[in-house]
Amino acid sequence: MTPDDRPDGQSTLYDRSFYKDQAQESLTSARMVLPELLRHHPARSVVDVGCGVGSWLRAAMECGATRGLGIDGDYVSREQLLVAQDLFLPADLAAAGLVDTIAARMTPRFDLVTCLEVAEHLPFDRSESLVDDLTRLGDVILFSAAIPYQHGTGHINEQWPEFWALLFRRKGFRCFDILRDRFWSSPDVKWWYAQNMLVFVREDSEAFTRFPADALDRPLARIHPSAWLATILYHWRPYRAAARGLEEDDFLALTTAWATGVNRLPDLKTLTRRSDDQDAEKDAFPFTRLVIADPEARIAAREDALAAERRNAAESAAKARETEDALTAALQRAERDLAEKTLQASHVSAANASLHTQVRRHVEQLAAIPRLQDALARRKREYDTLLAAHARLEHEIAAARDETATLRAACARLAQERDDIRRSTSWRITWPIRALKRLFGG
């Protein structure tokens, strides 16, 4: 198992929770499987490549192994180890040269080599060198690796067992299928072990004779019902169509090569569409096998989204109706206002026409102002002349009044004198003479 390319060497995939989940179930499976294997091949020394927290190594030590070593990435928490820390060796499993790494600590040869559900976590290009490392560590190898479309955390190189068996065959190892039938339906052995675990033994070794010949070189590809159900029920591959035809051809090529005794891998068509960039090429190996989706969840999410959209649409429709009602009322008010404004406008137009008439009249009057000003000036001059004449007449009248007063005064004196004469004695004495004179016309 390998780090997920973090610079500090820690893994973002294989953290404490990953090993916490699988530690106990792996230990339980190991305690069931190893006694059966060791019945055929007692082992005093064991190395577990990709040991995780050491479940299988611990079970081997419990079964009597006196020398053990577990190898995995430095990201494994030492606090979670099920074996003593001095039995753990950190190493980069994605890099070749495990034998040299082990040799720095101890003799790199063991009675039993275990490598269980590890190879699928390593890059495809590591496949041959991994088998080379394992075969250099011992003559008996308990090996299992995830098959295509098995699914799991960090799986980047799922292969059929014939793929691995051909690589082991090339190194002089033959396959004994002695465990799968025994534990196929065991509730204490996890289905991926029951489906995938095989024993590879060097053909020219003493150990080879200990294993039953009737379990030798059988057809290897199997799918456990639990795996099949998991794939059908939970693991929908959105890019599977890109592998149609290729996967079937590759499976036939591998099983044919295995059955016919070939000791090399056939050309695999799935590898003609291979990529390390999932973001750029999701429809290439290994992503056609690895990427899964949950269509039901997507459908449910879409249905939830549609329901939300329907609710939003209903709310929007209600708001639209409210808005329409408000707009209709506003339109009616606007129409009433328009009618009133139209009437007012007609009144204004009439008033405006009258105003225009008055304006024209005033304009005409304004145009007559200079003429009127000239006439006014003439009249003013005439008035001034009349005013001057009036002043002269007033003066003459005043003089005439003075003269009249003088004449009146003279008349008054004359009247007084007359009265005085009439009252005089002489006037009275002469009265009969004046009467006779008037009588006779004198």
From TrEMBL:
Pfam families: Methyltransf_23. SUPFAM superfamilies: S-adenosyl-L-methionine-dependent methyltransferases (SSF53335). Keywords: Coiled coil, Methyltransferase, Transferase. GO terms for biological process: methylation. Residues 317-344, 376-417 form a coiled coil. This is Methyltransferase domain-containing protein. One of its GO terms (molecular function) is methyltransferase activity. Gene3D superfamilies: Vaccinia Virus protein VP39 (3.40.50.150).
